[in-house]
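Forwarding the complex inputs:
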Amino acid sequence: MVYRFTVDSTMHTQMIDITDKVREIVSESGVLDGLCTIFIPHTTAAVTINENADPDVKTDFMKEINKIVPWEDNYRHFEGNSAAHLKASMMGFSETVIIENGRLLLGRWQDIYFLEYDGARTRTVIVKVSAC
Amino acid sequence: MVYRFTVDSTMHTQMIDITDKVREIVSESGVLDGLCTIFIPHTTAAVTINENADPDVKTDFMKEINKIVPWEDNYRHFEGNSAAHLKASMMGFSETVIIENGRLLLGRWQDIYFLEYDGARTRTVIVKVSAC
Amino acid sequence: MVYRFTVDSTMHTQMIDITDKVREIVSESGVLDGLCTIFIPHTTAAVTINENADPDVKTDFMKEINKIVPWEDNYRHFEGNSAAHLKASMMGFSETVIIENGRLLLGRWQDIYFLEYDGARTRTVIVKVSAC
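Prediction (whole assembly, three chains):
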């Protein structure tokens, strides 16, 4: 009951909707009641939930977090992507969504987003569906 | 084993203790050992854990996060609540608490809080109790 | 299937790798497929995942979050550690890692970190291994 899929980010920071893919996995699992865990096995990318309607929310969201954690700030890490490491931890590497009657219990305005903070790259998303 | 209850926020940003309600649900479920998942099906409200003693912690907490993510910052989103969307993701939409011998394994100073970032409104909290 | 261990922080803010300890617990549990929940029963300490290679990432990570949430900012809380409370909630008190074939599904560069924001102290970490 562990599924993996890849996400190809095309920008340095990007918010990519993965809800359809996660819904497909839950459906394929056949689990009617339980938990769906979405896990990001990276250190400069994360997962969150947010609005699925106005695309301006994504623009504002990424612009503002990039402002709060500036890309340049005399970081010591030789790769120069310390801001991406911190932003990923602030957002989190796992998200738990409840499954009821075979459906993800997302709110009306909620979608699940992969958050890229140091792209563009091919990334992996791991999804576990638990019948519990 | 999926429970729902509503929270009525009375302020624009507010930290509301929901621990008693979650404890009641765990008790009602009859589950002795497992996981309790608290999920917020909104995009401008969140859930966290924090101190249950000095109420000044709540005041400082909300004041400081509101300062870090300012309400006005030339956001594009037409509803004007982009700050609420970002703060909700920074705090998170789900919290997992371990259940042992029928009790939530919260620390002595920990309570569970619903976080309102764009109230006042009636909101829903979903709780799943898993015997696993 | 609930395990506890202690962490002795030696600095006021500190990022301590607890991956080996969590791996040991998963191995001891005998669970081959399921979920591992790491829970911090405190209000000024948290848990996250991040890079395990260059130690400068840890330095940058803690320095930058300490800058974003300053220690002094006219807080009202009499203990004076409101910044620690907020940082802990921003990072989160629980982390869920998927277990497959008896192994934690961490990415190549990922380790699990205990985050101290108001040390030095002896702290507790709770780990639950669920076969689900």
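Chain C has one domain: 2-131.
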